[in-house]
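dude i think i finally got it to work??
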Amino acid sequence: MKVILIGVLAVLFCGLCILAVPAEGQKSVVIVYGSRYGSTARTAEWIAEGMAGKAVLVAAKEAGDLSGYEKVVLGSGIYGDMLHADMLSFLEKRGDEVRGKLLALFVVCGAPPDYASGYLEKFAARCGAKPQFARAFGGWMKKELLSPEDFKGLEGYYKSVNQPYENYDRTDKAKCLEFARLLLGMNCPEK
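look at this
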């Protein structure tokens, strides 16, 4: 019984590995993202969808060996003027693997596009590489999803700038799909 259980677990583990790393010789792109409240994850999903099956989507906290991928796209939400903690941790562990494969970066935040370009520059500097493409996307704020600390901090921020503290959704699937087509047209390998 113990041998059968170990065998089943081994098959399941190997199956998960196959999902995470492409078969040898298979050309591919991986999109690695860090998301706190879901808008960056949704943006990454839309970009992957627009890449018509040519990209694998992986959360930064779950990303493993990237050696099987030809190109890497990195995405991060911006929180308190910083990249998501999972993305920072990912870059500490896997930054060397990313440098020669960095196709694109994207950030998701509430800042206007002109201001968000500074986040893209900081992101590229953190990667130690200049991506071929970079884009800032709007996110969402859903107060019901916020941690008590984030709720209170954002409430104070909006009060300090004399702006209403209201939910918003600035995500845009069409812009994500457009970005994906740009990536496909320029550098994404065929499967």
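The radius of gyration is 18 Å.
im so relieved honestly
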